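Please review this one.

:::
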Amino acid sequence: MQASSCLMMRKLSQKSDILQDEEKDDDEGENDSQVNISNNDAFECFSKGLAWLEQQEQCDSSELMLLRKLRDRAARQRMTSLRPMKLPFKSL
């Protein structure tokens, strides 16, 4: 009886260690969500995703439209950030 209870205690301890490790991994993953993705990177990713989706045999038109809208949105935001700022001119 004592051997089986020791075995059960070891298994419970191992499961507890696994859960603690998973919680640590979850806590570490929270910092990853704070990374800012540039408009240019978003545009490139959506473009690649769109090219991939178009190559698939079973391609849903609503998925294509969604990716195109997201790609176009990233393109507009990218162009807005690239626009030169107006410089104030002094009159002579």
